[in-house]
Fold this sequence. Notes:
Helix Hairpins, SH3 type barrels, Alpha-Beta Plaits, 3 domains, five-stranded antiparallel sheet, three-stranded antiparallel sheet, 52% helix, 18% strand
Amino acid sequence: MTAKDITLDLIIRYGFQVLGATIILTVGLLLARWIGNLTDRWLQSRVKEPPMRLLMVRIVRLLVLILTLLVALDKFGFQIAPLVAAVGVAGLGVGFAFQGVLGNIIAGLSIIFTKPYRVGEYIELLGVHGQVVTIELFSTSLIQLDQSRVVIPNRKIVGEILHNYGTIRQLQLKVGVAYGANLDEVFTIAKEIVAANRYVLKEPAPLVGISELADSSVTLSIQPWVAVGDMVSARAELYQAIVERFRAGKIDIPFPQREVRLLGGHEIGLDP
């Protein structure tokens, strides 16, 4: 048998298989690109982080290509079932080896789709708190009020109790005034201070009232709403304005006092 005959025999025997596999791979590549673009458009309104969205699109495309490759191999007579089983066993071993990493990825995907918090919101969990600056596939990063960064693995977040404050916070300001102060005047000045501050939001409306009758003063509570990023600046400006306006209005801010009465020296050991 000549080389020409052998070549012709191979073409006749495997030509259609090669042609079919080539067509399948070509269609698979086009299908992977189309599904990837469709996934990217669907994720644009749901995943705000471009790197994370790109990673998810690539994973979808890779899955389509793997499926296409398995179908193409089937055209050449390869047994797909043993190959799939071997991949499954290998995947199980890899899963055990990288269970922490895979746990973070699964938790990250859960956070992306369920949206318990978003970038820009202020949250508290696991004993830490801060403003969310990035939500990545493996971790979530927070910025605290002192500008320090806290990075939390996503698998630590899912399943925990999470307090989401949103994008605004209510300040808890307290100042004591003397019992003899004119409370109507005190309330008026406090409301004017809050209304004039550049950081205080108009809605929700701030709260001004008495929170406690202390030993030496009446405790005034001032609770305005501000954006999360303005908390420190707003607190400092409001306290400064309170001190200045109360001093100008002759409103006394008393320091803690105790009245001690001596009923008899023998009782307190003053006399020998």
